[in-house]
Amino acid sequence: MKFFFFLSLVFISWSISAQRQFESQYIDSVQYVSKIDSLNDLYGENKEMLPEYKLAILIALSYYPELSDVHIVFTEKKISTTLNSRPNILSVLFKHRNKRSYTIRINNRKKDSIIHIASVPFNAKVGVFAHEFAHIVDYESCNIFCLCGRLFAYATSRSKAKYEKEIDTMVIERGLGWQLYDWAYYVLRHSHATQSYKKFKRSIYLSPQEIRNLIIKP
């Protein structure tokens, strides 16, 4: 009887611990508004940000201090995904690695079937920006041949999925796993994206369940 009682206590303790771990770490924009100037001083140098996304960008950047001096331009374009990031080719070809610049393109097509970042909850918004910054950290570690390898990673669905899941894992390791979870959950459960796009997301990126498992693993 004592043995079964002990097992019951262990199970209850584990259940409570798992439940606490699963509680999403929610970043409330209201709590950070007053800190935007200090965040900008620390992480906004050499960043050309769009005002409406500035707070989410700066919060995500605060988890990537090595990008503080990196030149990043945010621009709106008609693209088929919500965000994407890329090195600026001229800076790769003609500048030293620590002088490269990058562009993060934000989709500006406001259609029901395409996810526009303005409609994304703030916590998830931080998560998707964090994913793009993880890409830039990876690009910063690459020489020109390595960057070409990153380009070729998109040649097949299998290699693309391997690479994107590695980037997702980096976001989790940086401490923004729940924000990434909220982004993935929003895309698959609450967005008006097409079923084909949701199928693509499931095949290429970590699923909400996979993200959760990585966050709460022992």
Give an overview in words:
The protein contains 10 helices and 4 strands. With 218 residues, it is an alpha/beta fold. It has one domain (24-216). Strands 1-2-4-3 form a 4-stranded mixed sheet. The model is unreliable at 2-23 (pLDDT under 50).
Q: Summary?
A:
By secondary structure, this protein is of the alpha/beta class.
User: What is the number of E strands?
Assistant: 4
Strand portion, in percent?
5-15%
What is the SS-derived class?
A: alpha/beta
Distance between the termini: 29 Å
Radius of gyration: 19 Å
Biggest sheet record: 4 strands, mixed
Tally of individual domains: 1
Shape: globular
What order do the strands of the largest sheet run in, or round the barrel if closed? Answer: 1-2-4-3
Total of helices: 10
Which series of helices and strands comes N to C?
A: HHHEHEEHEHHHHH
Q: Average pLDDT, to the nearest integer?
A: 87
**Helix proportion:** 55-70%
Low confidence ranges: 2-23
